[in-house]
Amino acid sequence: MPERCQAEGAGDGYRLIPFGSGRRGCPRASLAKRMVGLALGALIQSFEWKTVNEEQVDMTESPGITMPKLKPLEAICKPRLSMRKHCLV
User: Fold this and answer.
1) Are 68 and 61 in contact, with CB atoms under 8 Å apart?
2) From which domain of life does this come (predicted)?
3) Where does 1-89 have alpha helices with state H?
4) Which residues pair with 78 in a beta bridge?
5) How far apart are CA 82 and CA 26, in angstroms?
6) Residue numbers of the domain that contains 42
7) β-pair partners for 77
C-alpha cells in the first residue's frame, strides 16, 4: 500500500524509516548497523582527524528527523604513521 506514505496525520512519524518498521522491516538492518560501526571505527583508527579552523565543533542541531547539524562539520584527515605503508600516496 504505497498510499500509506502519502497520508497526512497519524503516520507522519514513519515517513523516513530507511529499513522499514515492524513485521515488514528489513531483515539485514542489524547487519547494516554493524557495518556502519565497523567502517566508522576503521576511519577513526586509520586516520588522524582535526577540524579545519581549530575551533571547537558546534553541536547545535537544526530541525529535522535525523538531527542534522546547523553548521556542517569540516575536517581534515591524514593517514596515521602506522597506516602509511598501506596507503598508495
Assistant:
1) yes
2) Eukaryota
3) 29-46
4) 48
5) 38
6) 2-86
7) 49
